[in-house]
Amino acid sequence: MYADSVAWYSERNRVDFIGHVNFRDSAVTLAAERASYFLTDERLEAYGAVRLENRGTGGGLDGPNLTYWRTLPATRDTAELYATDRPIVRHRPAGDTLAEPYTIIGQQVRLRGQGRAWAGGAVTVERSDFAARADSSELDLEEGLGAFVGRARVQGRGSTAYVLSGRRIPFRMTEGKVTWVQAQGSGDANSNDWRLTADTIEFHLSGGAVEEGLAWGDSLRPNALSATYTMRADSLVLSTPGQKLGEILGFGAARATAGRDSVGVEPDWVGGDSVVARFADDEDGRRFLQTLEAQGNARAFYRVYEDDGVSVAGINYSRGRRIIASFRTGGIDRVDVIGAGDGVYLEPIRRSP
Prior knowledge:
By secondary structure, this protein is mainly beta. The protein has strands at 5-9, 14-24, 28-38, 43-54, 60-69, 80-84, 88-91, 102-105, 108-112, 116-127, 130-140, 145-156, 162-174, 177-190, 194-206, 209-216, 223-226, 229-232, 235-239, 247-258, 268-281, 287-305, 312-328, 331-338, 342-346. The mean pLDDT is 89.
């Protein structure tokens, strides 16, 4: 340890360092304006423009204060850090000095060893491909686990952008990349092609992109919204390879609904014990609904339009064991009812000239 001046208090077994303090041991280097070292429990308290660097990982901390507990035989087998007043922490996995660090900011932050971190008080965690905020958070890089608690929000960045929020969001990582994330309580998620709400929402990710999403709940029934359709069910599954919406599967009293602003209150819909919505690209590369398939107590309510696509030619209500509705980019193309089919077709009343 180095400093402009030093004071030794033998009765307290403490050394005070004042002015341009520099500390170095086998694990860290530290600079501060002043510091106190307590020999009895190998504790260092530093204040004023504190800057610490982990020599093993290249991570570090910048803040107004820091308490550092060194390893102590028979008492403490792992070094620990504690800092308050919104320190900035650069946290990266042990043994990987080239990995991009997570930048953690919170009212108070605690670090244990080279892989575990806790933060509380308006916490933010950021990296070039990832951002999150919550009332508190925990991160275990060694086990690849973590959680954001209280008004939690997780965001994927770049071309694979997505946003997920909830009361609590646990997550798992592989090689420093988030591979699984779950919003628990008032879940809300959205991407370029869809939005999903439910009590619980779970994402499986690959390369930062959402490959599959699941949703379920009682107090907030799952609801998936695309550009053209809304689906509700007891549980939902989104298939999004490469983060492009491929399928939405609804199970348990499922219903897919479309809206047309130019027509009355009741929109077109397809329902059943289960419903599958499949999407494809149109000629301009935009996603559109290709088919809706309902199975088990299947029902469909839809309007038939004249060639102009605006004038209503009739209203159809159909039932069957299975119903498949096919679509063009401009609207419905045909509806097939399979097994025990019946229904009603209503022609519009033609007004006299």
